[in-house]
Amino acid sequence: MTTQRSRTLRQTATEAEKLLWHGLRDRRLGGLKFRRQQTIERYVVDFLCFDKRLIIEVDGGQHNAQADGPRTAFLEAQGYRVLRFWNPEVLTNPSGVLETILAAAEGRLER
């Protein structure tokens, strides 16, 4: 079921997800390999760099700390670092978001 869901999510990506994927795909960001809409156990994450154990989530208005807390805690317990960005942040400052992601992947970010 999650595999089918991840396929559907790839086909119905938000504008912010499409814009960020353009900067992450094909090892465009620091040579890092990212996958989109990747299944991790019962969750589907927006973007995953498995080598760096880094998850990138692009959130819309339906997201909040209370609702996403258990999901984030589970993913962190699996050894992943989770970075979250709001859709407007990605749409208005994509280069800044990409720099933040690269800094996290390189261990230069305490976020």
TrEMBL record:
It comes from the Bacteria. Keywords: Endonuclease, Hydrolase, Nuclease. GO terms for molecular function: endonuclease activity. Residues 3-104 form the DUF559 domain. InterPro entries: DUF559, Endonuclease_DUF559_bact, Restrct_endonuc-II-like. This is Endonuclease domain-containing protein.
